[in-house]
Write a structure and sequence with these properties.
Layout lengths: L11 E2 L9 E8 L18 H5 L7 H17 L3 E6 L8 H6 L2 H10 L3 E3 L8 H9 L6 E2 L3 E2 L13 E6 L2 E6 L6 H4 L7 E2 L2 H14 L4 E5 L4 H10 L5 E3 L19 E3 L2 E4 L7 E9 L5 E10 L8 H19 L1 E5 L7 H4 L5 H14 L6 E5 L10 E4 H7 L6 E7 H11 L11 E4 L1 E5 L9 E8 L2 E4 L5 E7 H4 L6 H6 L1 E4 L5 H12 L10 E3 L1
Parallel strand pairs: 2-3, 3-4, 4-5, 8-10, 10-11, 11-13, 17-24, 21-26
Antiparallel strand pairs: 1-15, 2-14, 6-9, 7-8, 12-13, 14-15, 16-18, 17-20, 19-24, 19-25, 21-22, 22-23
């Protein structure tokens, strides 16, 4: 093993000494690409041709292809062992997904030569039908051990509980689990049943061990908080390669988690999101299959990594029909509109204010006074200057439509509690609002974090009345109970889910009020 495969000083030795029978495995890994087929800019949106030419862009699947091929070839040339894994959520996030529904992703992942992929929650965004179509196109296995698919005529027998890879004469077992709240964050349908992540992983590990597999990697899509818990609690897992929470692991970037981070002696890693990084984990096992050492780091796929030429040409071909839509300038903004995940899932953010105000503006003629947007529905920021339809679609890629309904004040407060209930996990249910103000106590227990809820009353603000009925606008996903907002589905009245596309509403609002000046005004107070 050469020095280029080690994370400078970040080698975590789990025991001393290297015996001749030691086995070293390199794992190259990605997660949460979210259809970032083309290079991205610093806002995680599609990079402009001008910025790309100036070397300001990152990632894109063609850069992933280049770096995977380079490292894999180097490792194999030196007699090493290497596998390539993806921890889920390749679907949803750009016009490529909206247009090609994963067929492009299947083509590119197969060309790169992935060895296995976990099922992510967004792989269900077009229902079991969407995932089934993807499975029919790929040449590598998908794995998720806590899904019971026996009742699904579309998926039964197509997703593996475990995968065993033969690498360098050794068996490497892959186990996996998908977040059980996928029923709230996507559309798996009633025939897809979920089991507890820890219980399912423990059972699958036991099955592999009974078959003589001693090297076991958990390829998960549950988020870093759960990953750390599973690493410490499920015996027999040697490493966790995760996704879902878009967590940055790095030994060189400030504010990132150490790569790897140990939990219960087990290394846990992930590689942020959007194709910006490739993870490279190096595991050394003794001759009994016990993990001795873990090292590595994420690799920034910046302009120093040349995109694979053949893949870049194919991407350009596929992008042709999309360019006219994306290039249309719809508005202008005087400053960056912050839509970062860290902010929009924890506090008032400028993008949340924009989208909520756009919804409220569109629906106010229908007696609507409150707008609610889930933070997880906001997928990028927008830079200062001209705003294209492509920028807006990158922020709002889900093709959600406006939904209006009526709800009592008590239901709205319960919705705000739901939005604040998973702050620690950075969950997408966090509530961005318009026509409403509230205070959030992040230290209080979930379910009792919300206070001082105020509603707009003419030119002022007044306390929300639990028994009063208010007109509300949101997106159809939230109105129908997504992201835990079941109270809207159960208690909402006079619902209408067939309004215009949220991206179109936002673009038209930007044009109407432009040049737009993003701002925070204290509608959400966090203490």
């Amino acid at each position: 093993m050469t020095a280029r495969f080690l994370a400078s000083a970040a080698v975590l030795a789990l025991s001393a000494g290297v015996a001749q029978a030691d086995y070293t495995l390199h794992i190259l890994h990605t997660n949460d690409l979210h259809s970032r087929i083309e290079p991205i800019n610093k806002y995680d949106s599609t990079c402009s041709a001008e910025d790309d030419a100036e070397g300001k862009c990152f990632g894109g699947i063609a850069r992933v292809a280049t770096k995977v091929t380079e490292l894999r070839d180097q490792i194999r040339a030196e007699g090493g062992n290497v596998i390539v894994l993806d921890a889920g959520d390749q679907f949803q996030g750009s016009l490529f997904y909206t247009t090609y529904k994963g067929a492009d992703t299947a083509e590119f992942m197969t060309a790169i030569g992935y060895d296995a992929m976990a099922v992510g929650n967004h792989e269900f965004d077009d229902g079991p039908e969407g995932l089934a179509a993807f499975l029919d196109k790929i040449s590598f296995p998908m794995v998720s051990g806590n899904l019971d698919l026996s009742q699904s005529n579309l998926l039964n027998g197509k997703v593996s509980n475990t995968v065993v890879l033969e690498v360098g004469g050794e068996k490497v077992g892959i186990v996996s689990a998908l977040a059980t709240d996928t029923v709230e964050t996507s559309s798996p349908g009633p025939a897809v049943l979920f089991q507890d992540e820890a219980d399912a992983l423990a059972a699958d590990v036991a099955d592999l061990e009974a078959a003589g597999v001693t090297k076991i990697v958990a390829l998960t899509h549950v988020g870093v908080v759960k990953d750390l818990d599973l690493a410490a609690s499920v015996k027999g897992i040697d490493a966790v390669v995760g996704g879902h929470s878009h967590t940055k692991f790095s030994n060189t970037e400030e504010g990132a988690m150490a790569y790897p981070t140990l939990s219960g002696g087990v290394p846990v890693v992930s590689a942020y999101a959007y194709s910006k990084y490739l993870g490279h984990l190096v595991l050394t096992f003794d001759d009994a299959g016990a993990l001795k050492e873990a090292s590595g780091d994420t690799i920034l796929l910046d302009a120093s990594v040349a995109p694979d030429a053949a893949m870049a040409a194919r991407i350009k071909e596929l992008a042709g029909p999309l360019d006219e839509i994306r290039a249309k300038v719809v508005a202008e903004t005087s400053a960056e509109i912050d839509g970062t995940r860290d902010n929009c899932r924890a506090r008032e953010c400028a993008m949340g204010n924009l989208v909520a105000e756009a919804m409220l503006d569109r629906a106010k003629g229908q007696g609507v006074t409150i707008a609610i947007q889930n933070g997880g529905g906001l997928r990028a920021s927008i830079g200062a200057g001209k705003v294209t339809m492509g920028d807006v679609l990158t922020v709002l890629p889900f093709q959600n439509t406006l939904s209006t309904f009526e709800a009592k004040g008590a239901t709205i407060v319960a919705a705000l509690e739901n939005g604040a209930s998973q702050l620690e996990e950075g969950a997408g249910r966090f509530t961005q609002v318009a026509g409403l103000k509230y205070t959030l106590d992040s230290a209080a227990p979930a379910g009792s974090r919300i206070s001082d809820v105020l509603v707009k009353t003419g030119d002022g603000w007044g306390a929300i009345d639990p028994e009063a009925v208010y007109g509300v606008v949101t997106n159809n996903y939230v109105r129908q109970g997504g992201d835990g907002y079941k109270m809207f589905d159960a208690e909402g009245m006079n619902a209408y889910d067939y309004g215009p596309d949220l991206a179109d509403v936002t673009a038209e609002y930007l044009a109407k009020v432009g040049p737009y000046t993003p701002a925070l005004d204290g509608r959400i107070t966090v203490k």
